[in-house]
Amino acid sequence: MSLISRRALVTGGAASAGLLLSGCDQVSQVPALRKILFSGEIMNKGLQRALSNRNALAPEFSTAEMSPRFRVNGTHNPNTPDYTAMVAENFAHWRLQVGGLVARPLSLSIAQLRGAPARTQITRHDCVEGWSAIGKWHGPKLSTVLKAAGIRDAARYVVFTCADLYGGAPYYESIDLIDAFHPQTILAWALNDHVLDVGHGAPVRLRVERQLGYKHAKYVMRIDAVDSLAKIGLGKGGYWEDHVDYDWYAGI
Amino acid sequence: MTIATPSPADAPPAPRTIYRHRVATRLWHWLNAITIFIMIGSGLTILNAHPHLYWGAYGANFDHPWLNTIHWPSYVTIPAHYNLAIARRWHLLFALVSGFSLLGYMIASLANRHFQRDLRVRLRELSAANLWHDLREHLAFRFHDPADPTAYNIFQKLSYVLVIFVLIPAMILTGLAMSPAMDAAWPWLLDLFGGRQSARSVHFIAAAGLTGFIVIHLVLVILAGPINEVRSMLSGRWRVPEDAA
Prior knowledge:
Chain A is an alpha+beta fold.
């Protein structure tokens, strides 16, 4: 084997690796290829749902296994005049609105939520960035609230609208009814035996334990049952999904 | 790519050229060349989102990492400019390609007896004398047993066995263990690796092992004669080296 052909091969190999690398960046710009690239979400969702029991529980931990400190992520404080006023009066006039495709729209006070039958779970929170923290969450099951409101048959998704603003619009997230009625999906109002603080989403945040952190909407103000996500926000089911192409299904 | 002949026994009588790699091997090889490249590039972007590794179930900024990696530069990441969402799209689509192509290759290689014939490690090959002999042969750039030039040498066998049966399966299982939905479906994934953050660390270590394999593999392909080796992986036809005749 001559040295020249070896050199040509190495150079050729390096050049094609470079081309492939920059090619990857082009792919996500071409609509048809982008569609293929984004189809992984549908396949992963389908496979994961097929492999799991609908009510399979996320692992739960003992108090000894909890993170010493549960870091705050995302919004640290919504800092809007309305929210700051609510914090000042300890959420006395805060109401959680439950509406959309329900028979009986609800307006729940924090006292009503705290008085409802609750679930306590020590679970692992997995951020899309890669870190994990284990904490103890406490609050009523979302299913209890949805049943009390009489969710209609036409409903396919549950949308959470929050008090924190991103680019002037409220943060929002959505889940389907499989996750909405999962026994570990709760409206948490306490973390580690303390009333939820502002950093972690006071007064109420969603826990949807089989998905990544950005699905766990904090500062929840409204819950709406809907039949389609198309007309909400930019139509992809959540702030990050709309604006930076995050997967709507965040089970992996 | 030429049409594969049915079996090595039917190889034409050309004295120096033999049919070495079956179509399943060649197909999986080139699929891997693309897949692993994409997985490493997009994986490094994902690692850049939180370049700290921990042992155990949890691990975040206030916990003690066992390793803080470098910030991976744009010329090795996919996409070049930091975009976690797009990196995850690449990674999680090609994770499926990687997993299912390994499965297909394993079934084909059991059926065509590639595993049993070429990768089976025999006890006598693991003797110190044989390992020493093989090491000296490698250092002298002689990679083929003159008596049986098509057979894989012991280092080749061990590295392929490590990659096919340990490293890539470890990548897949640790990848699944990082999925909160899969942890609910298959809780044993966490027991296997000792928690999600341990699985994440093993994922990185196995990826480093695969990267090391690729570097050594490419160097050896160049030393063994790149045109002959690449052609054999394209057409299956491999010219028996002169020194092994």
